[in-house]
Each structure stands twice: as C-alpha cells, then as structure tokens.
Amino acid sequence: xxxxSGAIWEDFALPIIRLIxxxxxxxxxxxxxxxxxxxxxxxxxxxxxxAFGEPTRWAFDVTKHLYGFYxxxxxxxxxxxxxxxxxxxxxxxxxxxxxxxxxxxxxxIFFFPFAWVFTTRSWDFAMTSFNQREVTYGAVQLPxxxxxxxxxxxxxxxxxxxxxxxxxxxxNKIDYIEQTEPMDVR
Length: 186
Prior knowledge:
elongated
C-alpha cells in the first residue's frame, strides 16, 4: 500500500523538526547557565567593592560580554518556546486555519528575509572582527570577535528554528495557535 504524498512529506519533515528543536533546546539550556556565571561575577565585584574598597577592573566588561552572549544565543530557544513578542491584535479573532496561514505568510514575508540578512551580515561582521583581532577599549581589552562569531551562530540557530516553526505550521503540528479573544488592555 502506497503512502499519500502528505504522509511522505511528514515522514521527511518530522525528523528535521525534532533535530532542529533538539539543537535549540540543548543550546538554550546550556547557555542559560551563563546567567549564573555573570551573577557570580557581579556578586564578587560588589563584595570586593564594599568589603575591601577594591572593585575589580574587569568585572563590568566581562559581564557585559557574557550578557551579550547570553541574550543573543537564546533567540532560537525563545522562538522554539514562542517567547518572542507578537502582535496578535489582527490575528487573535481568526480561526485556527486562517491564523495558521497568516503566520505562514508572516514567516515568508518577514521572518525569513530578516533571518537571512541577519545571518549573512553577522557572518561578514564576525569575519571582519576576527581578521582584525578586534578588542574592546578601556581598562581591560577583551577580544570582541568571539561575541561577534556567537552572533553569527545565533543567527543560524534562529534561522533553522524558523524553518522548524514554518514546517510545523505547514504540517499543522502546532499547539500554540488557538482562537482567542484579544486582551483588554484598558
């Protein structure tokens, strides 16, 4: 007995969705540990400043870099968990299928062009920084290019998570779209 073309497409797409979701889940959980590291550094700096009157020269720059890494690397993870800001004013009253196809159009018109530009431009940005061995200015000169390379990696993770979300929409394998009433924000 032959499979319907939809079932064949689903057999092809579902492993890709699981792989992409799994990658962003693992990256998100690992990167979330960076918050603990920069919290420890801030507490250490505050302790040194208040207890000994000797603030560190490096803590602010290091925590700024760590927070930038943390923030940018969690984009794909946030998209996987539908944690990005959405404007649902127009789509909130639409039916499930209509809303799903509006989201498909949104991915095609807005998300994929943005994610492609973000990915390609961040690659150029990272390689320029790497080739120049760019460092910060100030008391401590930290290399900037690792953070800019992380920006490129984050752009790729966001782009592939967009592919996963798009495939879920096409295959109707989503559970976060439901008919809702817009929130009253008076």
